[in-house]
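Supplementary notes for students who missed Thursday's class. We covered one full example, reproduced here. Read the sequence, then the structure, then the short commentary at the end.
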Amino acid sequence: MGASREAVVAPLDFYRPGHHVKTPRMRSPEYVQFSTAAAITLGLIPGSMHRTACTHCLNLLVTYPEGCRANCGYCGLARHREEARDYADRNFIRVDWPTARYDEIIARVRRGEDRGRFERMCISMITHPDSGRDTPELLRRWVQAVPRIPVSILSNPTTMKRGDLETLHAEGADIFTVALDAATPEIFERTRGGPVGGPHTWKKYWQAIEWAAEIFGTAKFGIHLIAGMGESEEEILRVVQRIRDLGGNNHMFAFFPEAGSMMEDRGPVPRDQWRRVQLARFLIDYAGGRIEDMRFNDAGRLVDFGLERTELEALVASGKPFQTSGCPGKSDEEVSACNRPYGDSSPGDIRSFPFALRAADVSVVRRQLAGESVGTLHEVPGD
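Structure (token representation):
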């Protein structure tokens, strides 16, 4: 198995963190990084994922040896890590991101080496002077070569003007997203702005969101939000409602301390808090819920979803609110193609399920909603 895999990857000028040397010429648009889940799905590296055979979104990341110039307090790609670890070896959302030639990745997808599993491709930008120039080039080459698979853009608003969004839309981008991440201006500032030496501003990010609503239109734009960075449940859900009122969707992540980040000592979001926020987010995005109908206590904790008990139970039983939230696939707008296997938790304590939940999974989720401290792996028979 190992020898045959090496034979496959050798012609690719392929870099895998900890195994090869990434050179200064490995930069976009000739090269891109991609998630470990995508590498497994493409057969580039051996491995398997707990209870899922693949990822349905090919997550790509523009790459430069100089790295990301931002310094977000929770991110594995943050600039402050330059002295501690070579940029090419840094992890991002809990996993390594190998590097390969973009043309080779396109060729593999066209040959069907993903076995038709990819339903979407996403180009993630970083804060780098060349990112705005190279992203449209990557988009153009993909749309021409693989028109059957739609493309999302995970943007970097700090370096973008309105015309950049118009160009991406004209070149065929299907969905435009903004990683707002923080739910309040105060949390945004202290984790992404001046206090950590970062260039990002709350105002600029919201400007990009409003541009996206106008240019891409209803259900064709969205944001990323990370639950558990110090906000209340009410605060994050008010952002969810604001995005929904603009016509967009909310892609939710559970805060998980990234090793080597400035927030590595902060604990993950409590399970009960996370499950309430997941459920309310789904209710607002897909089930007609409104935050005005929900009730919160003095600490901003959600105490009433504003829905009849039988309807709420049916939503919980479906399991859908607890699956990974992201850009949709081909068949079901409520189920994300971007299932990001274990991007915000381990298989033993699944926060975002990258697969449809079984009855036993739903049972664990119910216990977590009730405040019980239970994980997932040992609770599901047959694993």
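Commentary. The chain has a mean pLDDT of 89. The longest helix spans residues 271-286. If anything here is unclear, bring it to office hours.
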